[in-house]
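I had to read the description of the data format several times before I understood it. The format is easy to grasp once an entry is in front of the reader. For illustration, here is how one protein appears when written out as sequence plus structure tokens:
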Amino acid sequence: MIKPTFLLRGILGGVLLLAVVATTGCGGAEQRKARFIAKGDALMAERKYDKALLEFRNAVQLDPEDGAARVRVGEAAEKLGNFPEAMQMYQSTLAVDGTNALARARIGRIFVLAGAPDRALEAIDPALKAAPDDPGLLTIRATARMQQGDLVSARADAERAVGVDPGNQDAVAVLAGLMRRAGQADDALALVQKTVGSQPQSVDLRLVLAQLQLDRKDMAGAGEQLREIIRLEPEQLAHRYRLVQLLLASKDTDGAEAVLRQAVKDTPDSTEVKLALAGFLATQRSPAAADRYLATLGNDHANDLELQLGIGDYYATAGRRKEAEFAYRKVIDHDGDGPRGLRAKDRVAALKLRAGERDAAAALVREVLQANPNDADALAIRADLALASGDPAAAVADLRAILRDQPNAVPVRRALARAYLQAGDPTLAEEALRAAIQSNPKDRAVRLDLAELLVRQGKPQAALPVVEKLVADDPNNVSALLALYQVQANIGAFDEALLTAGKMKTLDPNGSLGYYVTGLVEQAKRRPADAARSFAQASERAPGDFRPYQGLASAELAQGRRDAAIAILERGATATGGAPQIVTDLATLLEQAGRPDAAITRYETLLAGDPRNDVAANNLAMLLVTYRKDAGSLARATALAARFKDSTNPALLDTYGWVLHANGHHDDAVAVLQKAVDQAPNVPILQYHLGMAQFEAGQQEEARASLQAALTGQPQYNGVQEARAALAGLGAPASP
């Protein structure tokens, strides 16, 4: 199913168009300016935005102080995706006329698109004070408040806007969305149908209507709306993709393929739609069918370097490095150090970097930057190389210097966000991503980055409008759907998350991801049997993926079947070639089942294949000192834990200190274990280890306090009885 957001274009562009201002000036310049504006308005109505932009620019050249003409330039630039120019036009209008409400509204709209509701409200506030009943401004405020989670105030603003102007498309769309959220789907449907009846050319409202019909399982009605939308805007591929998704949800694979093949015919210059058809064939037919299609396409258009780059991107995204590099090398052979050749070198460098071939990647980056020192992709890869070498400060300095010359370079801002994250500053990372979105609100990758960051920061509600817009703009993007699922799951919207997971299965029925996330939602809804079935289906489709086995095991544990969970993880360890995540979970369950020797064996095998695995080394050292008392085991634990001497991770410090304690170095152990407790004071087992070391070191008062903290609540760690006995020996009660 398709779930377009109710801000499919943020705030609908039509609501803010200016009427032509009649000019009766006494000079020819005024008349010529009026003609430029009138012609531009006509071209905008015909959706010929590039030509309209030229007309509006001509008007501004005649009268640079005309704020209305500048706003028109911004509107046309927005339609073409040139948001930096649009923002520049709106801001320059305010520099001349700070009271221009339309410029403030458009600035607010861009901030809403960028997921920055606070800045949107700040931008429109002066205009709202002057015109508190302006429907366009009220709608932007409603949207911003909705993004902030203030649905009551948002509803009041939207209702007020519709009351002032019942035909305002923006206001109707936002109000319908709020009604839908409130469970008033019938009222929302009636409102949108009425408005579409009076404005049949409104693409945006038809999209809203299609979604409302889908909510009612009216697949035919939704399909009718989408076909009419395609007729109205045949160049907008996103509309065709929505219809494809609808047909797939209706099990009409042939119909969906026909829509894409027609799109290829209707837009012969579009590389995007050709690659979309290839992706469709790979997921709905077979990878071989996609390969045959791309081979024919590449041979028939050997000199279309953009297409060859796109074919390389297709294979790179699919993880088929050999085929991707072959396509890129063809472009390099044709174009050398030309613009497309340099882009191909950037992409090969990115492949090399992902494969761990840093020297080869660095050499290619040097070639590109020698030919074009301002190549944004090469600079981003150079920053990635710095980050891979563990030097985020150098990457930050380099990227910030680049942005002084290229402030709207989105790849560089994305790289800067990654650098800030590695440097431990998520706030600056978020600022960098929001600045990138402001430069280009339609950039899908940067919006996905922002959504993922907001989720990691514990702000899923703020991420929701970002991912909803992302899915609406690119409904066939599985990564976007995954981001939407993650946000929905984080806010507890499990029914919506299940629908999103269903769309993922529809788009990629042979893949495991949709089934895996379905299992996660069913698990969250306390339906372990259903979850187990979904995880099993995921394992069938991707036997080498560790995640479905983890899900299956957790489903068995939820039903109290630990032995079954162990059996699943053992099977998963074999199928995945000993994936560390599976082995770690398996060893944990084996220890809980009273089989520490089996857990030790698992970790030894894991470390034999990957000696640098700190998690395995840590857990193995702790198992050895906990369950074995022979000199050989103690020596092995000591050697393993030595690597954690200077760690800042409290769990790793705890292991090092506990091994010191086992070796009889109690004073040294206390110093190390105290550092671990200082970083994680509410972890009972850390308090237990510290208390026992203090007890042996003769620090009785300190030991008493630590052991009391270790026994607070109902602790479950191995050693609880020892802690109680030690505390009793100190003459203290077993719990505070």
